[in-house]
Amino acid sequence: MTKQLLDEFFLGLNVSITLFPEQSTRSYKTIDKFQEFIIKEKEFWQSVNSEVGSRFQSIEDQINNAIRYAESNNMSQAQSCASQALSLAQQNSWPTVYSKTAAAQFIKKQIQTNSARGDAAIYYLLRGQMPSSNSIDYFKGYVDAYIFEESARSFKEAAATHETTLTELHTDYQNKLNALDGDYHIITTSWNTEFNNAVTAWEVGVENFKGTTTEWRDTIEKETRDKLDRTLRELEQIRKTYTEKLRLEGPATYWKELEKEYNESGNRWRWWAVGSTAIFVVILTVILLIHPDSQFITNGALDVNSLRNALAFTIITSICIYLTTLFVKLSVSSYHLARDAKERYQLTHVYLSLLNESAVNEVERITVLQSIFSRSDTGLLKGDSGPTIPDSLTQIIKLLRK
């Protein structure tokens, strides 16, 4: 019952934790869930930074004290310990730093790379200090932290720019639509006035005139609605294309870089194959040209020594052939993977072009995305292949390559 009173007290606090150094928040309704969260933070930071780990250890100790006091019917002390734990967790300053933030993950990677770099990142990003140190690792840590901070800021600015562009596009479209709707009402109002005047002046032809005006009005309304529907479809297509571009821009860049890497790997293995072949040829030539009879025949007869020499020669030759074949296969595989990355890069841009022209249906779209993100064929295993690209897209890609 006393534990339930502590849960009710905790629920009444409306606990909301800001994940410092970011502004995102998390809410907790029970002290048990809050305790689980603090334990995970403590386990994360104990291997990263002892000062932060000690802070979360203190918070966990206060929570444990609150639960223990509640179980012994000392609610005033239980509430005091719970409040102290929340106060420490909501400090929003060093060393109360949460692992679910990008800065915390970056600091962990820096510490795993070099402890001095990690300390420099902590001072720069979280403590706002720059202690005097002539260590080159400290300097590198400051530079890495600065690049991380600027990259995060650039990403936010780019997102805000894209949002502003879409907002301006929507506003411009809405203004044009309002102007078109206003023109429509002005025209229909004007013709209705003329129609009423014509009824008074020419009563005999009123029915014919009314029918003509109604038909003309319906035509304008139909054309206006058709144009509106067409504009909405175009705007939706632009939105879809832009969304797909944002999704595929990163993978396309990755495949472009991967193509270069595989080409370099193919060239390296090719030179390994050429070099090893040349070395093996020289070795075998020396063996065969320098006293070949003494190596394989003793006193004109085949004995155990000559048989052993022949066996050794056969093993060396087999190893040479195997290594040369291995280097050639690795080179061919690298070139094959480079071509595969290049085709994925080109297929991504062709897909975006066709998507903008509404030339890809849903089935083909799913198949194309499976082709783009499928497992790559290394070329080393027989029968190893990925999904087939739709025939219509295959023909278009062949035409674009000409």
UniProtKB/TrEMBL annotation:
Keywords: Membrane, Transmembrane, Transmembrane helix. Residues 218-386 form the DUF6161 domain. It comes from the Bacteria. InterPro entries: DUF6161 (IPR046159). The chain crosses the membrane at residues 269-290, 310-332. This is DUF6161 domain-containing protein.
